[in-house]
Amino acid sequence: MDIERIIDDIQQLEEMLEAPDIRPFNAHDISAANRRHDEALASSPWFRLWQHYGVCCRPETPVIRLPE
Fold first, then answer.
1. Rg for the chain (alpha carbons), in Å?
2. How far apart are CA 67 and CA 37, in angstroms?
3. Out of 17, 38, 41, 42, which could bridge 47 as a Cys pair, Cβ 3.0 to 4.6 Å?
């Protein structure tokens, strides 16, 4: 087992993962980020209120859902 080689491999991986990802976001990336955001804020009463009435800042067409 070559310890020096293993250490070099680990350092190379660390350097690769430190580099920023410069790829542009696509629709799937944005949708996934919005879904994670919604899940993280699901317990917030303010977020539920805004979601219920369709108040948001996303590019989708807003849908106003009035209480029945």
1. 21
2. 24
3. 41
